[in-house]
Every structure is written in C-alpha cells, then in structure tokens.
Design brief:
Layout (H helix, E strand, L loop, with lengths): L14 H10 L2 H20 L6 H8 L1 H9 L9 H29 L16 E7 L3 H14 L3 E7 L2 E8 L2 H23 L2 H9 L19 E2 L6 E8 L3 E9 L2 E20 L5 E12 L5 E7 L4 E3 L2 E10 L3 E8 L8 E5 L3 E6 L6 E11 L3 E3 L19 H6 L14 E3 L3 E7 L5 E7 L14 E7 L7 E6 L7 H10 L2 H15 L5 H19 L17 H12 L5 H26 L9 H16 L7 E9 L2 E9 L2 H21 L3 E10 L14 E2 L2 E2 L6 E10 L4 H14 L5
Parallel strand pairs: 4-7
Antiparallel strand pairs: 1-27, 2-3, 3-24, 5-23, 6-7, 7-8, 8-9, 10-11, 11-23, 12-13, 12-22, 14-15, 15-18, 16-17, 18-19, 19-20, 20-21, 24-27, 25-26
C-alpha cells in the first residue's frame, strides 16, 4: 500500500469547501507549511529576538527595523502568523493521518495471498526451481521455515497448487503514523507553551502591558498575571541577600508581571571563568520560600541543571549586577572642570552641573555596569585593548593595516590574553536626552613589554552601542595615578604657570650670560606653549574660528600658516623640542607644588612625557568635560533565572520519541512481501490413471512421496537496495533447497 499524497475527498458541501478540505489534508500542503516554519525558525535563530527597537535601528537602520517590527520578525516564535501556521500544520497533518491510517491498518494485517501465479513473473526478484516434494509438503516446509525467520505466513490451497504468501517489516507503515503524529504532538506542545494563554488573558481578562518605570510593587494589577497562569516563561532577577516572587514577561511594547507561588532567595552566586574571560560555570545557591505554607526549600541551580518546585522549572539563565556601589573620581578634560569624587549604585544615576551661571549645563551620570574581570587581547605588536586601541579622534591606522596586510603567519586570530582588572561603564546624558557611553579601567594597563613604556589608564568612549570603544590613553605617574595629568592640565591652562615654566626652561637651556638669545627662546617657548594650550589667538588657521585649535594640531596649523614649506621640517623639530622642554618644566613645577619628588632624567621619564604630550593633545577632543575614574567599589552579584511552567514540555518529549521511532521505522525498516507458487509436476502417464489422479505404472500406483512440484518465487520490497538483493538470494537458497 502506497501512502497517498492527495487530500481527503468529501462528498458534501460546496465546491469551495470540498477543495479547501482536499488542499488542507494533502501532504503537499503540509510540506509547504513545514518549509515556511523552517524558514521562519532560521530567521528567528539568526536575528536576535525580543530586543529593544533601538538595537535593531542601530544595527540595521530605521527602514529594516521597521520591516522587522511590522512582520514580527523580531518576535518570530510568538508572532500571530507563526502560531497560525503551526495551527494549520497541526490540522493538516491530523487530516493526513485520519485519511491514511485506516488504509495502513487494513494493509497491516493483509498478506495478499490472492496474487495470481502469472503475476509473479513480472516481479524484479523472481526465481523458479523443481522440487522433489509434493506442492502441499513443499508449501508447509517453506511456510514453517519463513515463520521461524520472523515472517507472517499464510498458505492457500488452490485447485492448481499451493500459494505461500509471507510478509515482514510491517512496522514500516507504522513509522508513517508515528512520524506524522509526532508533528501534531510537537505543534500542540509548542502552542501550549507559547504565549497563546498570555494573549488570551490579555484579551479576556483585561490584562495589558506595562510601559512605565518605578518599583515592581507599584505596578497595577492590570499588568500582573495570576499565580494560576497555566503556562508562562519569564525572567526573574534576584540580587544576593534578597528575594523576589515576581517575574517579568517581555512583550512587544512593554512587559507583564508574573506572580509566582513562591519566592526565590539568592544566598550566594558563584562564577568561574576561562582564561579568555568567558564564564565557565555560574551557579546559584537559593532558598525557595513557599507562600502558602512558609516552607523553605534549599536548592542549587546551575546551567543545564534546573530546580523544580510545584511544576515550575527554575533555570540559570545568566547573571547581572545586583546594585554594586562604586566611587568615581572626575578627571577634568576642560579648564572649567575641577576634580571631585562621587558615589553611586549600578543601575542608578546622579545629576551633575557643568559650568556656572546662566551657561551651566545639567548632565545625568548613569551607572550602567561594573566588571571585575576584563580579559583583553594584546597580540598586536604595540599592544592594545581588543576592540580598538585608537585615540578619541578614531585614528588607528596601525591596527587597520596590521589586520589586512603582513606575512601569512600574522593572522588576526593570534592572541595574547591578559586580565586588565576591573572596569566601570557609564553614560553621560545631556539635557536633550542624548547620551554617550564610556568604559574606563580602574588599573593602569601596560600596553607592551618594553621596560620604559609607561602603564596607561584607558578611558573609552563610543557614540552608539554598535560601535567599538575608542580610548584616550593617560600615562600613569610614578604614584600609579592620573594626578600628574590633572595637575599638568590645570597648569597648562594657567598663563602664570606657563610663564614660570618658560622662564625655567630658558634659564636651564641658555643661562643668564646671553640675554638676547634667552629672550628669543622665551618668546618661542611662550608661543609654543600657548599654541599647545589653545590660548593663542594666532592659531586662527583652525577651521573653528570661535575656538582656537590646541595640542599638536595647533602647532601644525601655525607652521603651515607662517613657515615656508621648505623650512617646516627643521622648524618643526625645533618647536617640538622646545615644547617638550617647557612641558617637562611645567610638570616639575606641578609636582614640586604638590610636594612630590621630581621625575628622574632617564628613558622611562622620557617615554612618560612623550605619552603625556599625546594625552594632553588628545584631551580637548574628548567628547565630555570630564572622565570618571573608578576608585573603589563594593560588588553585589545578581542571578538571572528563567522560570517556566510548561505543560507542553512532556507533550513535546512524547512527540520527539514518536518522531525518532517514526523516522527509524520509515528509514531502517523495509517492508518485504514474498510469494511462492507451488504447482504439481508429474511425469506423463505410461499406462493408466487411478481414481485419485496419481500416475500409475503397470497397475501399481506411484507413492505420494515420489510426486514432484514446480516452484515459482517472487519478492517485493518498498525500497530497492543491495540488502534486498542479498536477502532474495539467501531466501532462494534456503526455500528452494530441494532441487530435482
């Protein structure tokens, strides 16, 4: 029996109804629906689901973000069209099963012994042999042999001989029923564990999504689902030392709160890391508090090892910050800012005022993340934090070239991993609501293995979440702090301090016996330092007329405007040497005023000052009036659980078992049917025949045991394979083993 791919034909209803039933119950329609589901599932796997709309806008642009939202591609598995396709597939497959199952069951018990003997000659596997047995004896011997080999056998006596019909591998047809039933069961389980129940409650019970903020306890009942909700899958965040009994269901346009019949208390969260910085193991020691009885049940939740309580599975999903407290120190990036310290909590915010008077600007400092372990890749020839080691002007030509050019052994997969310690991530949001994200490391980072190169504090910034961080590098002074940078930045903005530094430099370089040369050097040093500080109006060559250029860019602009091209190289070397000398004296003055030892005259100090010049030059380009350095913290861990009541899970498991059995039955079990036709073969009569039809010779009857038969055997199988050929040859030898 061949399973029909046509649909169910009904004799009632209109033509449209009959055509619809035929299409819905056809196998081609089921396969089409299954194909669409596979494509949708692939989209749901590639495209991150349940992300905020802003993330899709940043990654794909506003047009495609709108397309994803309209087509519900960002929520594929809960989209109405996906659930509708699942429902149609379930109905279509059920109709296919209902149409074909009666035929399969009827064919399951049929051996088809009524096949005509002439039809056996048309089979691909056929054989003939003469047997020294009567047809009845041969039929019984062959039937017994087949039964012992596991065949279902039926003997049929006909007027012209005996037909032996046998069948084996009937479970192949049951595989069809099991596999198609599995599809129905999996669809049913998927619909049960989907958000259909949640949507039904929103439609029938007046529930709606919540889009506001504030405390969970302040959310109205209209946005809460009952503890008796039969199916849900939500997230529960619990900080160490606290407990929670309200989970969050993310919905398009907002959230719903799911009340649990118990509260989860997090006693301790443990995490282990690989050498790459990726989490290797994280687990939570919890206590489950039953709301009804007050019973306390301890449990441990690990990845792939959930806890179960009253039909609710508690999975370890991820971990987060539970409200760590941090102390930040402001590093001024402009003359108007002053150093200060501020304390905050991760997840909270502080309001700052930048400037004075009517021009004061309100800035909101949002504390977003604290990370204790940061494993970065320092495989580059000059080191660098993975992601980008560029300065704030986004100039990173070396890294860009190294990743695209070079020898074959210099691949981008080479790694030199190092833990650079804690970091803090925060946002600065202006009055218009625009925000930039910052990531600053607590400890100075040694960028290469050179003994003289200074360790540097890395101050990262990016405009969009999809961008890599760009880093301002501030060299750590001998006290392993940024204090020298802050003092030097303040002294550079003070004309009196600059004048003192220029005077000291001129006296050390020229002395007092050559006043004319000292005056010229003083004038050049004053001009260089003023240009570098951005306070010289002569730097009008800058593109921004309202704000003169500063740093090395100001010196470059000045030379292009005032020095002939042929003399720029020599003049530039002289001017940079003067600038470095005056900045060194300015640094020495700042350290003296702070009561610190002067910097020694060695290669380490030279490398420190070279990086300090670059940092001071880059600081005006930093897109914020201040950077915040992490000074102290107290970490509080939080665990993110996924809590789920999934009645369809067991249905899906049953469907998976049926699918395995069905696929195994259809692919690995071959249905075979065997027929052996046995007709009498007697010699021609010599004298006469007796009444019984047996041939006699000279009046003596021939014994029945001397009667011969002609055997014709044929084998039919649902798939032509080499195993079928071998089996037929074996059966031919085994069954037709009594040749004449």
């Amino acid at each position: 029996m061949t399973v029909s791919t046509e649909g169910m034909k009904v004799n009632w209803g209109s033509r449209t109804l009959r055509a619809s039933v035929e299409l819905l119950s056809s196998m081609r329609f089921s396969i089409s629906l299954l194909t669409v589901i596979c494509i949708a599932s692939a989209i749901g796997t590639v495209l991150k689901q349940q992300e905020p709309l802003g993330n899709y806008v940043n990654q794909f642009g506003p047009f495609w973000a709108q397309v994803f939202s309209l087509a519900s591609l960002n929520t594929v598995y809960s989209a109405w069209w996906f659930l509708l396709i699942l429902a149609f597939l379930m109905v279509s497959t059920s109709l296919c099963i209902a149409r074909n199952t009666p035929k399969i069951l009827a064919d399951f018990s049929q051996i088809k012994e009524d096949v005509r003997e002439q039809s056996l000659k048309a089979f691909g596997h056929r054989a003939q042999a003469a047997l020294a047995e009567s047809p009845e004896a041969a039929a019984r011997r062959i039937g017994q042999t087949l039964v012992q080999s596991g065949w279902k056998v039926k003997l049929q006596q006909r007027s012209a001989g005996w037909m032996v019909a046998a069948k084996k591998g009937s479970a192949n047809k049951l595989g069809y029923i099991a596999a198609h039933s599995a599809i129905v069961l999996i669809c049913v389980g998927g619909l049960l564990d989907g958000d259909m129940m949640v949507r039904a409650q929103m439609l029938l019970n007046g529930k709606s999504t919540y889009t506001g903020g504030g405390l969970i306890s302040d959310v109205p009942a209209a946005h809460r689902l009952s503890e008796r909700n039969p199916t849900f899958r939500a997230n529960l965040l619990v900080a160490e030392g606290t407990q929670s009994s309200t989970a969050i269901l993310n919905q398009p346009g907002g959230v719903l709160l799911q009340e649990l019949p118990f509260a989860v208390e997090l006693k301790k969260f443990s995490v282990e890391y690989y050498s790459t910085g990726m989490p290797k193991l994280f687990a939570s020691d919890i206590i489950i508090h039953d709301k009804a009885t007050g019973e306390k049940t301890p449990a441990r939740v690990e990845v792939n090892h959930p806890a179960n309580y009253k039909g609710v599975e508690i999975y370890q999903s991820s971990f987060d910050d539970g409200g760590s407290s941090v102390t930040l120190k402001a590093i001024p990036m402009s003359a108007a800012s002053k150093p200060f310290e501020i304390q905050g909590t991760i997840g909270g915010s502080s309001v700052l005022t930048h400037g004075q008077g009517a021009g004061a600007e309100q800035i909101t400092l949002e504390y977003t993340a604290l990370r204790l372990i940061n494993v970065e890749n320092f495989a580059g020839s000059n080191g660098g934090v993975s992601g980008s080691g560029a300065d704030v002007r986004k100039v990173d030509l070396h890294q860009a070239i190294e990743t695209r050019l070079g020898a074959a052994n210099k691949t981008t997969t080479q790694k030199k991993l190092r833990n650079v310690g804690p970091s803090v991530r925060y946002k600065l949001r202006d009055a218009a609501g625009q925000a930039r994200e910052f990531q600053n490391y607590m400890l100075p980072v040694k960028m290469d293995d050179s003994a003289d190169s200074p360790a540097m504090f890395l101050m990262g910034v990016r405009e969009n979440p999809a961008d890599a961080f760009q880093y301002l590098r501030i060299p750590a002074d001998p006290e392993s702090s940024t204090a020298t940078f802050v003092r030097l930045r303040a002294a550079l903005a003070d004309p009196a301090q600059r004048a003192l530094a220029v005077g000291r430099y001129a006296r050390l370089a020229i002395g007092t016996d050559r006043p004319e040369l000292a005056e010229q050097l003083t004038e050049s040093a004053s001009r260089a330092l003023a240009l570098f500080a951005g306070t010289d109006a002569a730097a009008g060559a800058s593109a921004d007329k309202a704000k003169p250029a500063s740093g090395l860019q100001a010196i470059s602009d000045f030379m292009e405007a005032n020095v002939p091209e042929a003399e720029r190289n020599r003049a530039g070397e002289v001017l940079i040497r003067i600038l470095n000398g005056t900045l060194f004296e300015l640094t020495a003055m700042a350290r003296e005023q702070a009561g610190l030892k002067p910097l020694p005259q060695d290669g380490k100090t030279q490398a420190f000052m070279s990086q300090m010049v670059l940092s001071l030059s880059d600081a005006p380009h930093y897109p914020a009036p201040m950077a915040f350095e992490l000074k102290d913290f107290k970490q509080v861990q939080a665990s993110v659980f996924q809590v789920a009541r999934a009645p369809g899970k067991k249905v899906v498991y049953l469907g998976c078992a049926f699918l395995i059995l069905g696929v195994f039955g259809m692919l690995y079990i071959r249905e075979r049917r065997l027929w052996v036709w046995l007709a009498p073969q007697t010699p021609a009569p010599a004298n006469s025949n007796d009444d019984s039809g047996r041939t006699t010779d000279a009046g003596h009857s021939v014994p029945e045991s001397a009667e011969k038969s002609q055997a014709t055997m044929a084998l039919s199988t649902n798939r032509k394979t080499m195993d079928g050929d071998k089996e037929f040859e074996m059966l031919k030898t085994k069954l037709l083993q009594a040749p004449l």
